[in-house]
Amino acid sequence: MGDGKAMHLPAAPPDRQAILNEIGHLKFFEQVLPQVTGVTDSTGRYLHWDDLRYKKPIPGGLTREEWWAGLRFQRESRAKEIPLECKDGVSFSYNLPDSILESLHEIDQRAAGTIQMPDEITSPEMKDRYYVSSLIEESITSSVLEGAATTRKAAQELLRTGRKPKDQSERMIVNNFRTMKLIESLRGEKLSSDLIMELHRSITEKTLDSPEEVGRFRRAEERIVVEDMYGHVYHVPPPAEDLEKRIEAMCRFANGESPDFFVHPVLRAIILHFWLAYDHPFTDGNGRTARALFYWSMLRHSYWLFEFISISSVILDAPRSYGRAFLYAENDENDLTYFLVYHLEIIKKAIKSLHRHIERKANEVRHLESLLRGVVDLNYRQRVMLGHALRHPHQYYTIRSHQTSHDVVYQTARTDLQDLANRGLLLSRKIGRTWHYRAVPHLERALKNLS
Is the pTM of this model over 0.85? Predict the structure, then answer.
């Protein structure tokens, strides 16, 4: 899934009742359970049977099957049920091993409240640029996860120039970009069927085989399954007739109206991601809509750093792990813990990636400020563009691309570029009806002469 190869289906866990019947309940409680006191292995990992069947050492001289039965007993006794039910009416649940609690603490510290950033990137203009860059990154990678075929360079050019998409892949990317901006405006809204439809409509417009499937739930006659290119079926979603009540339950959960115990906001957002993907309410675009819901929920709960974070870019590094996290949860008695552990690691990697990116950019800003110190009347946008031009001397810029990159109006972008051309820092050329700008040869020398 993602590289054209069939994904490994996890091994089905042993039947716990059969194990209990074989060893006897007395032996289980007197000899097995004392050796299995928690929900993880000795290193703190929350293992699925697919991994545990190869794990060494086995505690207390138990068989692997006995170890598994003990783990499942501990997990079930501590599990927290949520209103999401599988097709058979059994509720999903999750555990809170130490690894999850530690991850939540780290995310709370690094993605919400007051976060220290380098002084060089705390200006409103720099934040706007990071915001646009993160929207572009998430728009591209989320589309590629769903099959869009393009290069990152071509996709960035598409979004920055604002040209019309040439094919379905480019339309997917443009739609994702538009939807990520839409989420920012919807962060204060409660979740409803109408809001979900609005997100789906924004994501899938002009990308589905049938236009009438945009912004509506699938129907009973539309057989939808999750499968790979070889026809291997990984998931059969609940019947279409149940969608209305299931979506109502999901909205109550998203809005904090259920369950009757505290659910950490980050876990709530991750569960929403899983929930929509599990119910698969649309004929297409479910993955993109599920990730959009995750962002909506994180921003709604004031995790403001997620305006600048792309989780899809991390997922894209190992797409099979993404699919396997879904399968583990459904395969092992509706245990959502596997997906929570996976998704929390994705979030932490995305946050670390952003912080590395910010530090690199801060260093670039310091270097550029040193170079341009004598040119005191250039604005921030012009300085950033010149910094980019120094690294990419053959790059062309347009008024529209500058406007998109900095989220400014057309006239402001035009004034920025024309001023740089008048200073002898940019060359301009009209191609068709559009003015194209590029750095003059030996731009660094020109800047030194100007200063």
Answer: no
